[in-house]
Amino acid sequence: MEDKFDKFANELQEQIFEETRESFGEIAYQRWRYPLYLEAMENPDGHANVRGGCGDAIEIFLKFENDRVKKASFQVDGCGASLVCGSFAAEMAFGKTATEILEIGGDTILKKLEIFPEENEHCAFLAAKSLHEAVNDYKKKS
Question: Most CB contacts within 10 A, which of 16, 23, 58, 117?
Fold first, then answer.
């Protein structure tokens, strides 16, 4: 049997989930709840850890094979919006060349999300910058 505190906590959690869905949309909500590619990578070919003006940091790891990204992952020290954008940045790098990755901008990430609060849009640009810096690191090494 659920006690009053458990009932309150569950109702509050559901309210948070619903408000997040409304503010960020279903795509971002699902990625926030179940982030993809969230892991560090040993010996990446390209790596960057970029901290934005908001204080959040997005770290990107890239592994290339035949000049295309074979594996991409990320870590984040920041808010849920940065988590979502980092996840999409890593996903968008798969199968791309370094040049193609440099074409991915914050606006490209925002288009994937469809709905995203204006006050959090800077997170998409932070993710793109980290992705670009990881490519620059790869280019220096190759």
Answer: 58
Alpha helices in the chain (DSSP H): 4-33, 80-93, 98-101, 106-113, 122-141
Q: Which residues are CB-contacts of 42 (< 8 A; sequence separation ≥ 6)?
A: none
Q: Distance between CA 88 and CA 115 in Å, rounded?
A: 14
Distance between CA 60 and CA 42 in Å, rounded?
12
Q: Which domains does the chain possess?
A: 4-141 (3.90.1010.10)
Assigned token pair, 99: 């040049």
- CA 103, 109, 85, 62 dihedral sign is negative
Q: What is the DSSP pairing of strand 57-65 with strand 68-77?
A: antiparallel
Instruction: Please measure the distance between the N-terminal and C-terminal CA atoms of the chain and give it in whole angstroms.
Output: 61
pTM of the model: 0.92
In 3-state terms, what secondary structure has residue 76? strand
C-beta separation of 47 from 135 below 8 A:
no
pLDDT tens per residue, range 80-107:
999 999 999 999 999 999 999 999 999 9
Provide the token pair at 88: 């999409």
